[in-house]
Amino acid sequence: MFDFKKYMKIQQRRVNEKLTALLAKTRQKSRLLSAMHYSLMAGGKRIRPVLCISAASAVNDTYVDVLPVACAIECIHTYSLIHDDLPAMDNDDIRRGNPTCHKAFDEATAILAGDALLTLAFEILSDKALSYLPDLQLEIIRILANAAGPFGMIEGQMRDIESETRQLKENELEHLHNLKTGALISASVNAGAILAKATKDQQQQLNVYAQNIGLAFQVIDDVLNVKGDPKRLGKAVGTDSDLQKNTYPGLIGLDRAEEKARDLVQHAVESVQNFDNRAEPLRAIANYIVRRDH
Amino acid sequence: MFDFKKYMKIQQRRVNEKLTALLAKTRQKSRLLSAMHYSLMAGGKRIRPVLCISAASAVNDTYVDVLPVACAIECIHTYSLIHDDLPAMDNDDIRRGNPTCHKAFDEATAILAGDALLTLAFEILSDKALSYLPDLQLEIIRILANAAGPFGMIEGQMRDIESETRQLKENELEHLHNLKTGALISASVNAGAILAKATKDQQQQLNVYAQNIGLAFQVIDDVLNVKGDPKRLGKAVGTDSDLQKNTYPGLIGLDRAEEKARDLVQHAVESVQNFDNRAEPLRAIANYIVRRDH
Prior knowledge:
2 copies of one chain form a homodimer. Chain A has helices at 4-23, 31-40, 47-59, 67-85, 101-104, 107-125, 134-148, 153-162, 170-195, 200-227, 230-233, 239-242, 248-252, 254-271, 280-291; strands spanning 94-95, 98-99. By secondary structure, the first copy, chain A, is mostly helical. Chain A has one domain (4-291): Farnesyl Diphosphate Synthase. Chain A has a two-stranded antiparallel ribbon with strand order 1-2. In chain A, strand 1 (94-95) and strand 2 form a beta hairpin. In chain A, helix 1 crosses helix 4 (67-85), helix 7 (134-148) packs antiparallel against helix 9 and helix 9 (170-195) crosses helix 10 (200-227). Chain A starts with a helix and ends with a helix. The mean pLDDT of chain A is 92. The interface between A and B is large, with 50 and 50 residues.
């Protein structure tokens, strides 16, 4: 029987140790590095890095060191949170139970820490010491830059802000989330799969998996913002309706939103049915998404 | 006789056309792309891209298409300006004679447009369509990520903000500028040189050139902030002393600052004396830096 909790703990520790090492590569102490470290080590669940690692091992259990790529992905994710939390954006004071970066430091430092984490991701990905073939290494950079860039995650965030003043249709909301959250989640799975030399078929199946859990993740985020426990969530609830955000519970009701998330997860699990038990972590992550309470 | 004005015009047009094409690669119209386009096309002098192109042709007049790399560098430079101008940073309303990005759009859009330009740079650099050898392409990505990242440009900007509350020594100010401005200028020259297959000796000489003009550029920027014509500069003057910034005129006086800039440029020109007349653009750019009035 696959022990998901234990698996997550092990992978999270690997990611955290590697991230610490990456930040400590110079002895330099600076306000900038402190702010980057603060947000990077603020207790994130490391879903994206673990997805990258798990996709790789689902394809190929010969050891492939995807950890640097997984950590670069977490740097990109953390930068996006720091900037999203800024007063000019979502104006959040609390993240994962702690003051957000601009509250713990200041706005200028938070903007720069975000910029620095984004750039650091590409330093990590282009590192000479990585053992991937150069063409493969370039492909990973391309996948992540595309997912995080102006035709992916950032466009999603822009649309999220723009849509605060008007009601979206369900397909518009879905497209928004596919950009804002889905693109980087898909890229995480895709990067892991490609590094493990997945076939085109496997890539395709994992892509369906990623798109479904990406959307499920966001639907559940919306649900938790309505009915979650702020203590467990480590952030305020009810903020979406305060900001008049477009959410699934707001659009289709709480019950149908929860049902939609369950359907998406089921679809995700079915899409990797041709994989053997090495895909257990991927199946467990999908199920965890609808079960989570924070 | 080398016609610097004509040369700059030709190169600027090439860069502008390529940047326009890069932004138009999808037909998508969005607020995000409009803001990116607005700042990218706000009349920048394209010094860094032209340095990249000129370094390549100084080494090798066989045609090497460095234009995509030159444009990626301009994206990185423009993102840094957008974020520097934000209210939480330098709080500038005018840049190159026009409202800054957050004034023309809003703060959230400006933050995202900056993020998007930085990420777009790495999309451009990792593009499959580039004809460089994969190892070389990776090296260019590494050089630019290092120069722009938390141990380069962003650390320089952090120190610039931190130093507003205390007086720096001359060597501290120099180190700050080497990070904030020098790192990306050096990377521009270095990237061009490497793409043109410069020898180690040539790289070394071009590196000395770049470091000297990078610092000269900043010293003259400080000088122009004291005595420049706001109409020609396209931005306010006297803002440095308002913000109690550490500047060369403030630290060593206006006359010695101008003398220092001339010395740096002379050193830069001497450092490329072993190059033939294909290095005329580099020499002309160095001389332009101390002559410029905006």
